[in-house]
Amino acid sequence: MDLSFESTTLDIPAIRRDFPILERETAPGVQLVYLDNAATSQKPVQVIESMDFYYRQMNANIHRGIHCLAEEATVAYEDARKKIASFIGAESWRQIVFTRNTTESLNLLAYSWGRANLKAGDRILLTEMEHHSNIVPWQMLASEVGVTLDFVTLTDQGKLDQESYATLLEREPKLVSFTQMSNMLGTITPVAEMTEQAHRAGAVVIIDAAQSVPHMPVDVQELGVDFMVFSAHKMLGPTGIGILYGRKELLQEMPPFLGGGDMIKRVQLGGFTMNDLPYKFEAGTPAIAEGIGFGEAVDYLANLGMEAVHQYEQALTAYALERLEEVPGIQVYGPEAEDKGGVLSFIYDDIHTHDVAHILDSFGIAIRAGHHCAQPAHQHFDIDATSRASFYIYNVKEEVDQLIEGLYKVKEIFG
Ligand code: C6P
Predict the structure, then answer these.
(1) What is the pLDDT of residues 134-153, one digit of tens each?
(2) What CATH number does residue 338 fall under?
(3) Could you tell me how far CA 297 lies from the centroid of its own chain?
């Protein structure tokens, strides 16, 4: 991977102009420097306007009406689904289930696939770097059904320990579920290889792509995964909408998650017949404007090209890592720039992470402080919390410099 800024094909100043919030001052004369993209990304004007247009010109419920507005809204919403299918290389739009977010997609899988396919004594293999969303639903299932959870451990560098993975696969888990990019360490995991190993061991594979699909090329067929989950709000889209991708045979066999309108073909007092995929999993009126906004976000990223997005963000990450190393007392967790996305979690001597974030905020610099919903990953390194800066396509080298200056000022105050 070429880690130089000069190689970028992205027109960063033009990209920045698409994000109105970047003009914001957080106090008089204090310009926003938004480095909390792993929590949620900012939204370009194209996404904001598409949602505004829906409410002004097209607002109607979908899949129900036959009037003009209902038909236009249905087409716009279903077009978004097709764009998302093509963005991740799915064979068919029927494999794209709209949910509320990554968390709901994982809960859907635990509730529907888990309860239908797992029994007491079965094992599920997770990793120590998972977000709580990819741990707690399985813990809930474990206490209800009696399955056992195993966790792949981490190396000192913050990668998945492949020996630990191979050993735990020998226990023949029925399910392996892990992240493609850690939201604490930034580690990019070798999904294709690990999926192949899991399949050889007889397991079904779920990939938490909440942090990867927004930042790098992802093709579900090339990776060979069975399920993949992610959220719109981390990839320039709105909150309140996410994706569950699944292999058709697996989705077809799964029982529905919620019952109600839209997920049925026919209801009689004595029972119901289920709708086809993906509607079987989409009970009730969905987040229509959000779906349309999500489609626009995917268009925006596809136009930039995900290779270019990844290359630019890795250049920013490499630069930020280099600059952070200059600051005495900073310890960054996770691997080198080549093996990670734009997520930099660090501790700063014994200064509390909330103090670091608070002082940086007074200079307009937004980072996240705390455990980032990845407590086991922090526990692995014997720490409770980190400060985390995370990048996206509109961030620039000068903002990394501002972060570094801000960190020196933090030291002056707490030093
Ligand atoms: N991580 C962060 O600041 P939702 O909240 O459902 O859209 O995404 C959950 C989730 C699942 N997996 C990973 C790897 C994630 O990073 C997240 C969300 C945010 O790191 C909010 S806690």
Answers:
(1) 999 999 999 999 999 999 99
(2) 3.90.1150.10
(3) 14
